[in-house]
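Regression check, N-carbamoyl-L-aspartate case 339:
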Amino acid sequence: MNTTGIVSRMPLPGPLPSSMQLNEQGRLRHLLTIEGLPRALITEILDTAESFAAMNEQAVKKVPLLRGKTVVNLFFEASTRTRTTFELAAKRLSADVLNINISTSATVKGESLLDTLRNIEAMYVDMFVVRHEASGAAHFIARHVAPHIAVLNAGDGRHAHPTQALLDMFTIRRHKGDFTKLRVAIVGDILHSRVARSQIHALNILNTGEVRVIAPKSLLPACVETLGVHVFHDIREGLKDVDVVIMLRLQRERMEAGLLPSEHEFFQLYGLTEERLALATPDCIVMHPGPANRGVEIDSRVADGPHSVILEQVSYGIAVRMAVMGMIMGGASGGGANA
Ligand code: NCD
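Current build output:
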């Protein structure tokens, strides 16, 4: 059996029963998807992250909330920001962290994903942070782990990336406050983006004034309107008067051949330039989950310019991941670092 194992054949999961990630008291037990999370819970995560964000700016960046707990980073797919910020978040909560390198693990010697899981479980661990190229992988693992182990989805195929969406909501809230008055545009490869899917759910749960997607038809999922977005194919029309613009990478590793003529042409039609950004509101913020491809979806002058909050997103990722881990395993809430 290859690294992907059983989960590679699983279809994109439909809406989860909320009991899959919430316990009987409505508290987070796993975090697999944004879909179906109550607004109050998302707000509580963002509030809890506020206190961790303040702590991350102090000289001593550590609290004992998860002392004695073991967090396992199980990454079957490449990652820089997400893996390192999950690791830092766990360490700043005083957990022990294990990074399992899948390319050198026993799964490449033919051990199945479930056998690998069972072996790591036998080491008395408390949380799995999972990234996998197959949509549904985190759900699969959550269904099969021992009942005391929590699972955090760090990105599954093109399905969901809930902590990325939460850190993006945190960034937007810090800059803009009230979501109900905002126009937010997500631009580029929506079709292959787990980030976009999770962002759209989060923005709608938070009652965002208007959520737009801007992309060619070939990079939009079928019936994307049913997710609660307005669709634009012309970037100039789509960017008009938006308060937030979120750029996405062309995710070639998930693309079938022939979807796009060329990166150069994509930039001509959909690249974010200073001139196009001028169509948005004067204090519009520019976001990108990274990795950003300069000259493909975003001009360097915009990526490094005064509207860009791309590096803030990275910093806030630590606080938001601390909040989620602290709420699931350490009883943190609202007061976060003081809990
Ligand atoms: C994203 C991902 O891996 O889904 N990046 C991230 O987690 N920061 C987006 C991408 O790969 O384009």
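Comparison notes: The beta strands are 70-75, 96-101, 127-132, 150-156, 183-187, 210-214, 230-232, 244-247, 285-287. The radius of gyration is 19 Å. No diff flagged against the previous build.
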